[in-house]
Design a protein that fits this description.
This protein is α/β, with parallel strands linked by helices. 44% of the residues lie in helices and 16% in strands.
């Protein structure tokens, strides 16, 4: 899959659909649940899902603000319906979370951007204590109310929250490695943008494979595979590091007002729409952080073929350049450490 080419198609489709009240009839019913829909990522992500012809029902959930978000989205003239739910109020006798239940029941894809954003000086790992608990609680709901849904985790640190989600699902007896993925599409978007800009290429013609994880040095873009691209050693180092720490660039530019929300929402939308396309039979390959036996790490981001039942095949990694092999050897201990941190949290 070419991320930017699909992005261009999606935007062109939205423009064409605009002349027909922004929507067209999708080929199959598809319910998407966005958990954390009132947040900085959640709102633009929900907007893009509302515009997608692949989505017939958009179900939004957050601890505050979701009825307003859903009401706002519902005024957009597309074919999909929109609902917004809050957690059920505390009551006696105690009751389950009806708001989460109605959001999740019948969902085909659950996207989780919920959590606190990074601020200047924070790493994704600094977010662990708060976001780990949030993801754990939400995935417990998925295990109960939509155990067969594809779960796409955006909440950072993805290297740890995906293992947390897996352990929660295992404990509930509903874990299916085909139905769980960490969204690393933003790393691909950044790599495509940066290499296109540096090489004078059209971004829609660039497709950089990005492997590893979704944090700092665990992000490894394979620029050696970009046809026609030529870098000096210094240029290659600079563009690699910029891709790895692109999130820091946005955090610093926002000066404490947030992290990468718009670009992450766009990447999450691309991932979600591609999963839906695969579910109705289209051939889709995209990078994702999934259970994998390609390396010594239990979970690993690499090109993955998606099908009707989720992850269909983790594709072979292929050869790395000497430069990429150096980064690979450097990142593996850190990636394994972050994965184990998630496993330990879920097991405690």
């Amino acid at each position: 899959m070419l991320v930017n080419r699909l992005a261009s198609r999606a935007l062109n489709s939205a423009v064409r659909n605009g002349a027909r009240s922004f929507g067209s009839t999708p080929s199959a019913e598809a319910k998407v649940a966005v958990l954390g829909a009132a947040g900085g990522i959640g709102q633009p992500l929900s907007l893009l899902c509302k515009l997608s012809p692949e989505v017939t029902e958009l179900s939004c959930y957050d601890i505050v603000g979701t009825p307003g978000v859903a009401a706002d989205l519902s005024h957009i003239p597309t074919a999909s319906s929109t609902t917004g739910s809050l957690p059920s109020p505390v009551s006696w006798p105690p009751k389950g979370n009806g708001g989460l239940q109605e959001t999740l029941e019948g969902a085909d894809v659950v996207v989780i951007p919920a959590g606190v954003p990074r601020k200047p000086g924070m790493t994704r790992d600094d977010l662990f204590n708060t976001n780990a608990s949030i993801v754990k609680t939400l995935v417990e709901g998925c295990a109960e109310f939509c155990p067969d849904a594809m779960i796409a985790v955006i909440s950072n640190p993805v290297n740890s929250t995906v293992p947390i989600a897996a352990e929660v699902l295992k404990k509930a007896g509903v874990y299916n490695p085909k139905k769980l993925a960490g969204v690393t599409t933003l790393d691909v978007c950044r790599a495509n943008t940066f290499v296109a800009n540096s090489q004078g290429l059209d971004p829609k013609d660039v497709d950089v494979t990005v492997i590893g994880g979704h944090a700092g040095i665990t992000i490894l873009p394979l620029f050696s595979r970009v046809d026609g691209a030529k870098f000096s050693d210094a240029e290659l180092e600079a563009i690699t590091v910029r891709t790895q720490f692109g999130g820091d660039e946005v955090v610093a530019a926002k000066a404490g007002a947030g992290s990468a929300t718009l670009s992450m929402a766009y990447a999450g939308y691309l991932f979600t729409e591609n999963v839906l396309k695969a579910m109705r039979g289209e051939y889709i390959t995209q990078c994702a952080f999934v259970e994998s036996d390609l390396t010594d790490a239990k979970y690993f981001a690499s090109p993955v073929k998606f099908g009707k039942d989720g992850v269909e095949e983790v594709l072979p990694l292929g050869d790395l350049s000497p430069y990429e092999k150096q980064w690979f050897d450097k990142m593996m201990p850190e990636l394994q450490k972050q994965i184990q941190k998630g496993v330990d949290f879920a097991s405690s």
